Amino acid sequence: MGGKARCGAGAGGGGGTMEAGGGFRDERVPQWGAQETRELIAARGELEREAAASTGRSAKTLWEAVADTLRARGYLRTADQCKCKWKNLVNRYKGKETSDPENGRHCPFFEELHAVFTERARSMQRQLLQSESGASVKKKLKRPSGDRSSGESDDEDDDAEVSDDEKPMRSKKRKASDKGQQSQRMAEKARTGSSSIHDLLQDFLMQQQHMDMQWHETMERRAQERLVFEQEWRQSMRKLEQERLVLEHEWIQREEQRRMREEARAQKRDSLMTALLNKLLHEDL
After folding, report:
1. H-helix or E-strand containing 250?
2. DSSP codes joined into one string, 82-142
3. CA 164, 165, 170 angle in degrees (round to 5)?
4. Could you tell me the pTM of the whole model?
5. Collapsing DSSP states into helix, strand and coil, what is residue 158?
6. Is 20 a residue whose pLDDT tops 60?
7. 105 with 97: CB under 8 angstroms?
8. Is the pLDDT score of 31 beyond 80?
9. How far is CA 100 from CA 93, 197, 200, in A?
């Protein structure tokens, strides 16, 4: 089928590869048309249903079958091109895009892809139910036969002869009993869950009360520390005020003594000047 194609070039693009003679050979992939894309989705859905019915088909074989189906319908595509285009469509579908352009980005093939994935989910559910029913039948067949009495073997022979009309009734009864047991288990789980929730609430309340007590104790301790700090601060302020008053009184005394000394010196200077002037006047006379 050729080399693996890159999914980024699935929508068409330029470029080419160098040939041996030096020229370029155009390898651009043509764009996918709307009808061609719908045919791809339809072929993938049909072959996926067939693959679910018959196991053992690989992914490569599946994409080759898709390419053959498209080729039969007039579209020439390789398996890698189909795979790349499908991956792009699935990425857009899983990106929560919608067919309504007003509520999200436009996805023109949303309905077709949604139908394919819905059918896939249904087929998987059917296979799961079939596997569960097969497992239950195998468990019944594997029960030991040595411990069963002759009466039980007769009952089983009678059960084997039950008509097909009575089998759905028995299956309904089994389903009803299974539902009853499941409801009982759910009720027990609900009771245990409610008791565990009650215990959790009690633990939460106890922790909340403990945290409240610790918070009150912390606030009271901080209030006592604040009162002690305020008392120490007031005492230190009073001490500083007393020291300031003492220093101010000493400064006033020093200033008073200095003023008295200056006055005494001034008086002494004035008396000396007066005596000198008197002496000079007497000498002139």
Report:
1. helix 166-284
2. HHHHHHHHHHHHHTT-BS-TTTSSB-TTHHHHHHHHHHHHHHHHHHHHHHHHHHHHHHHHT
3. 90
4. 0.39
5. helix
6. no
7. yes
8. yes
9. 13, 45, 47
